[in-house]
Amino acid sequence: MSPTDRAAQISSHLNFPQGLLAGQTAIITGSGQGIGAECARLFANEGAKVVVCDVDSSKSDAVAKSINDASPDGSKRAISVPGDVLDKAYFDVLVKKAAEFGGGKIHIIVNNAGYTWDGVIHKMSDKQWDTMLAVHGTAPFRLVRTAAPYFRVKDGEKRCIVNISSTSGTHGNAGQANYSMGKAGVTGLTKTIAKEWGPQFGVRVNTVAFGHINTRLTQAKEEGAFIVTPDGERVALGIPGKQLSDRKGADASAAYKDIPLGRPGTVTEAAAAVLAVVSPLFSYVNGQTIEVTGGRNM
User: Fold this and answer.
1) How many structural domains comprise the chain?
2) Is 256 a member of any domain?
3) Is residue 170 part of a domain?
4) Which residues of 7-26 are buried (b: 16+ CB within 10 A; e: fewer)?
5) Rounded CA gap, 203 and 191, in Å?
6) pLDDT digits (tens, 9 = 90+) for 11-62
7) In a 3-state reduction of DSSP, which class is residue 213?
8) Catalytic residue, candidates 90, 179, 256, 284
9) Which of 48, 112, 267, 288 could connect to 21 by a Cys-Cys bridge, CB 3.0–4.6 Å?
10) 179 catalytic residue (yes or no)
11) Tens of pLDDT along 250-263?
């Protein structure tokens, strides 16, 4: 195909009356709240069938219900398949149900599930370290491996994987050696899948690395957000209130002085970036790490 023909083809694709993701089925892990939940809603609005996944079944079910209740034509746009990404048996169930919902096909995976378990290096336990690598590295790998039969196909349909990272992974962050290591590894996983599955099957794989987005991970720890590990340990989420107040000082805007846009991002802005990456608008973007940071660290 000549460059002119290719340009015409792209131009013809810019009209999406049924949505950017019409006819596609997407798995989004960690989509019971925050960025993942907003991804699920935006994807469904763009015509996708969405598989909502979260360790908290009540949250997962609620997001799926809200999507289906809002469906303009009454069609079922979402299902809830709750489970723990640290349970290796979960992925067989998740992929099986996603394929059934998608009529035998899966087109998109967003590896979004994750949390932080902070500590300085000299005080960090093996459990803290191992858990973060398992959540942010092993779990995405296992999901992609399990879903391989639905991506390594030649049916002419577009397929895309997005692995969610963080500026902690691209630049490091004090107090987050474990989280930074896990999120840095995501980049290598992304590039490897892109190189293995791109040439024969046309699968696009990219990393989206978020900066300061307003979620439970960036709120004050004193607000009480937490997650419970598989063995029952309660892990507090967020940033210590004193650390937040020290950042702000007398001027609240001082907390964001290193962000050129001068503010944190919203979950909708974060999810919209993921939507853009999985959409046909990014059809020639592959193996990249796209930082969504408001300009921080540029």
Assistant:
1) 1
2) no
3) yes
4) eeeeeeeeeeeeebbeebbb
5) 12
6) 455 677 789 999 999 999 999 999 999 999 999 999 999 999 999 999 999 9
7) strand
8) 179
9) 48
10) yes
11) 565 677 899 999 99
Would residue 242 count as lying in a domain?
no
**Position 101 in a domain:** yes
Sequence-separated (6 or more) residues with CB below 8 Å from residue 215? 34, 35, 267
The predicted-structure confidence for 170-209, as pLDDT tens digits, reads as follows 999 999 999 999 999 999 999 999 999 999 999 999 999 9
Rounded distance between C-alpha atoms, residue 51 and residue 92, angstroms = 14
Range of the domain at 197: 22-213+265-292
CATH code (residue 36): 3.40.50.720
Chain segment 73-111, per-residue pLDDT in tens: 889 999 999 999 999 999 999 999 999 999 999 999 999
CA dihedral 165, 168, 171, 176 (to 10 degrees): -140
- Here the tokens at position 68 are 């289906």
